[in-house]
Amino acid sequence: MKATDFEYRHQTQIHNLLILAGVLTYLVDPDDIVWRFVRDSSAPRFWERVAFIVATILIAIGAILCTRARAFYRPHYLGELVYAIGFGSLLPIPGFLILVFGESLRLFRLARREPRQPSPAAMPAWGHAFRREAVKWGIVITMLVFVTTLKDRHADVLAVSSFLIGLLLNAPLFRRRSGFEGRPAR
Fold first, then answer.
1. Is the separation of the CB atoms in 140 and 162 below 8 Å?
2. What is the three-class DSSP state of 117?
């Protein structure tokens, strides 16, 4: 059950489609996981903030693991899974299931395809890693602002901005101009 060539070449697009599928579940179920479990409590604002802090921590850990793995040219599957769990907890239950199970299956298939060989002994490419993970870091910032304000509008604008900035930073034309080419020259 290895990933196909298509899955391997289009990892980011498949990841984005899973996120889109998860977010679109808001059309069927308007209550996210957090609100579903805190709305009937005696202190919903407190528990809502606690749940969003936990989600923010998971998203940040996922972003850190993915960025570090990319900088050292290693697979970033654990980071992707932790990120998916954190991000998925912001979605309705069906969205969480689609995102987490979809990402788990995708990552399992990719891991089965990866050859078990040591990474090249190159200098870490932190610029490349942060550029490739720009959307995740934008979502971390979005969540920090949201946890502080609990205003959906702020989160919506920042999340869309994060996605658009991530697209721009990873556009082939922009990479050539900025000198970001991935691996540093030897």
1. no
2. coil
Burial of 30 (0-12, 13-18, 19+ CB in 10 A): exposed
Q: Kindly state whether residue 68 falls inside one of the protein's structural domains.
A: yes
The Cα–Cα gap between 48 and 44 comes to 6
> Among 38-47, 81-90, 128-137, 155-164, which is the least confidently predicted range?
38-47
Mean pLDDT (the chain) is 89
Structural domain tally of the chain?
A: 1
Say what angle helices 134-149 and 152-169 make with each other, to 10 degrees: 170
pTM: 0.87
- Reduce the DSSP state of residue 156 to 3 states and report it: helix
Residue 185 within a domain:
no
Residue 183 belongs to some domain of the structure: no
